[in-house]
Amino acid sequence: MYEALTKYIGQFEDVGTWIIDRENDGSKEHPIQMPYMSYSKAIMKFLSEMDAFMVYNYQEVLKRNDLRWGMEMGNADVSGFDAEAVLALLTGAVRAERFCDGAFASFVRSGAVDRWLGRLKEIDES
């Protein structure tokens, strides 16, 4: 059921690159663009696939599982979580990117995304 997502386990070695404006001087005519993460093709494909699995009440689901939305979600022990809770974590990580450039990259680099996807794979196999 979650193969569209779990196929990405181990595929995020290249997260992407920070784009930093080093050409403009900050003047009115040449304002500096804020730095942003340019994600790899694999992550962009994953994020596109994730759209179909987004949990719109993810904060409520996290709360029911004694989790708070934020970077500490990456430390969650998901071994006993159901699919909805794992998808809420993934949704929270995707939503975090809207508020903080590079947030999703942090979840990937910490191994949290692969752990969460691994739990979805376990759920599929059971």
Topology overview:
Elements: H1 3-6, E1 16-19, E2 36-39, H2 41-50, H3 58-64, H4 83-99, H5 103-109, H6 112-125
Antiparallel strand pairs: 1-2
InterPro entries: DUF6508
Strand order of the largest sheet: 1-2
Uncertain segments are none
Instruction: Report the order of strands and helices.
Output: HEEHHHHH
Major sheet details: 2 strands, antiparallel
Please tell me what the overall shape is. Answer: elongated
InterPro entries: DUF6508
Q: Could you characterize what this model shows?
A:
The protein contains 6 helices and 2 strands; from the N terminus they run αββααααα. With 126 residues, the protein is mainly alpha-helical. It has a two-stranded antiparallel ribbon with strand order 1-2. 27% of the residues are buried. Pfam families: DUF6508 (PF20118).
Tell me briefly what this model is.
The chain is mainly alpha-helical. It is built from six helices and two strands.
Question: Keywords, please?
Answer:
126 residues; mainly alpha; elongated; DUF6508
